[in-house]
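Pipeline run #58 for the internal structure catalog. This entry was flagged by the ingest filter as a single-chain record with no existing model, so it goes straight to prediction. Upstream metadata was stripped on purpose; only the residue string is passed forward. Reviewer on rotation: M.T. Logging verbosity set to normal.
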Amino acid sequence: MIFSSLIFLFAFLPIALGIYYLLPASWKNYFLILVSLIFFAWGGVSYSIIIVSSITFNYLLGLFLDKKYKRIVLLLGLTLNIGILFYFKYLGFLITNLFYVFSIQSVDPNAFDVVLPIGISFYTFQAISYLIDAYQGKVKIQKRLDQLALYIILFPQLIAGPIVRYYEIKDQIKERKHSLIKFSSGVSRFAFGLGKKVLIANVLGEYSEEIFLIPIDKLDLVTAWAGASLYAFQIYFDFSGYSDMAIGLGKMFGFDFPENFNFPYAARSIKDFWRRWHITLSSWFRDYLYIPLGGSRGGSSGRF
């Protein structure tokens, strides 16, 4: 199910919002967990099984991060999370290329292809950030399964981001304010993102696809650049549109998610572009990979 689909716009979202605001505050989080499970199960029950498994083992690992062997626990958590992500996203690609390089034809490489679970990159990154922050003492270990589950499974931001870190949302999970102003702001932001996706990205995609279907020997320079430009803007409006819809949905349910795009094509350098495009992902890699490995003289000592 995608945010721009009719089933989501005219059935799933209105029903979810209607029931959510009728429930007492103590029930709202449990309802959001249920709604998120239904959202993931819509594309296949196996999707929900995978994310429930992720929630369970990350919760259990988190409980042991204040014990004697917390470094081993963290390494185990990183191995499990990265291993699952690698299996679903890159194992088939790796095997296919190895078969090609070594000219292995006795086995069909497509036999190793697996269906990519919806949002697996985003909820895996979020789980990893929770474990690392808990290990480093930046956040307290969450001993309530329901609150950690809601952090990992909350459906609005798991299609295409933004990547929300645990410390950014932990207080909102416990208690958040709802108001007509915030809800209307969320509706406006969602509608803005929906327009970017449907009215701009989808239209640009149709034109760029037509250009890409032209044989290379019949493609002139101007048309080629036009196709590349249309495709670049299609990606931006599609991706940022989804982020806008996610932020808008979050506000409708009382959450404030971080911004994810800041006019990246106005950047004056590659470094500036990196800071403006998918901001939550670039900052995630900076804080959990680049700096711990020694980037910006951060060093690895004391980090892990």
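catalog note: The two ends are 38 Å apart (CA to CA).
catalog note: Residues 180-212 form the longest helix (33 residues).
status: ready for reviewer M.T.
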